[in-house]
Amino acid sequence: MKKYTIILLLLGLTSMMDANAGHRGHHPGQACQYLKIIIKNDTPFHCYMIKRTLKMGDIYETASFKIPSGTENTAFELSEYNGQIHMTLTYECNEGRTITFSSTKNACAKSGTITGKKLSTQNMDATFSITPGSYWAGTPGIIHWTFY
Questions:
Q1: Is the full-model pTM beyond 0.90?
Q2: What are φ and ψ of residue 109, in 5° steps?
Q3: Does the chain have fewer CB atoms within 10 Å around its N or its C terminus?
């Protein structure tokens, strides 16, 4: 009986470790719980994050606070917490040039729809594109912002 208890305990621990580590490889079924926010800076100035507000979700990986001109940041990677992800970011690209925008992903169970919205802009603008996550391919959703 003790052998069965130990085996069941080890199987349970292995499953828990796999669930926590699965994000890196985005095992099918887990990837739709994540959202990557990528920002490309096409302005002639360095851009600096001046405010970050996570309204829903957890930050799994954070991006750099500075995005040099002509480059792309390392991605924010967010995970669901209670079913949704919602982050608002504000960047300043030189004096008097700011942008505030939000990135949102619905719960995985509700198809994981991704949306972006510019909340305010001053002397600059941005566009975004969306790549939906895939349950079967094991890939997270991506929202790719471009400042100009």
A1: no
A2: -70, -20
A3: N
Question: Quick one: tokens of 45?
Answer: 């100035």
DSSP 10-30: HHHHHHHHHHHHHHHHT-TTT
Query: What element of type H or E holds 3?
Result: helix 2-25
Q: Are 100 and 89 in contact (CB under 8 A)?
A: yes
Region class of 136: left (phi > 0), else alpha (psi between -120 and 50), else beta: alpha
Average pLDDT over residues 25-46: 83
User: Which structure tokens are listed for 81?
Assistant: 């917490």
Give the model's pLDDT for residue 65. Answer: 92
φ, ψ for residue 31 (rounded to 5)? Answer: -60, -35
- pLDDT tens per residue across span 80-129: 877 789 999 999 999 999 999 999 998 876 667 899 999 999 999 999 99
- For the chain, domains (ranges, CATH) are 31-147 (2.60.270.50)
Q: How far apart are CA 84 and CA 70, in angstroms?
A: 31
The rounded distance, in Å, linking the Cα atoms of 146 and 118 is: 12
Bridge-based pairing state of the strands 34-41 and 66-67: unpaired
